[in-house]
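for the writeup, i need someone to sanity check this before i put it in the appendix. the sequnce is what the collaborator sent (i think, or maybe the updated version? ugh). structure was predicted straight from it, no edits. if anything looks off just tell me and ill rerun, i have time this weekend
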Amino acid sequence: MKSSPSIIEALAQRVLQRRQSLGLTLKECASRSGLSTRYLMQVEAGQANISLLKLTQLSETLQVRLAELLSEGTRGEIDTLLSQLDQHQLEEAHDLLT
């Protein structure tokens, strides 16, 4: 059974995916965020413990709320669980949540 990625690995994946979806190169994104290209590369590889200040700067460059960068792992888990439900179960879940 495959284990869930660590918080740092999940954050790294979200940063990389968001940067690529915006069409930014490593160099462009790093420059706009006030980070070195090497440091951003380490963040995206899950090899750096980014500070809250730097993560805030990066989230502004990536045009995404800081909370989204930090909480997407939970959303992914929810999406996975919901994808395993049949239509009736989805309707029941919807009724419970609304």
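DSSP finds six helices and no strands in the chain. Residues 66-83 form the longest helix (18 residues).
thx in advance!!
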